[in-house]
Amino acid sequence: MSEFFAMDGYALFVWPAYAVTVLLMAWAAIAPWLQHRRLRRAIRRGNR
How far apart are CA 10 and CA 25, in angstroms? Predict the structure, then answer.
């Protein structure tokens, strides 16, 4: 199992790349939802 996580010596490059990818994909899913919430609140208040 430790060999899998070591990735034949490339772990220092592979795992951060996975982490950045996961973070960016999460942001791509969350950011539009947050913008939608802000816009709905602004519309309810009558502001644009």
Answer: 23
DSSP 3-47: HHHHGGGTHHHHHHHHHHHHHHHHHHHHHHHHHHHHHHHHHHHT-
Rounded to whole angstroms, the Cα distance separating 22 from 35 reads 20
Q: Please say whether the dihedral angle defined by the alpha carbons of residues 37, 38, 43 and 46, taken in this order, is positive or negative.
A: positive
pLDDT tens profile 1-48: 888 888 888 999 999 999 999 999 999 999 999 999 999 999 999 865
- Per domain, the residue ranges of the chain are 2-45
Spatial CB neighbours of 11, under 8 Å, sequence gap ≥ 6: 5
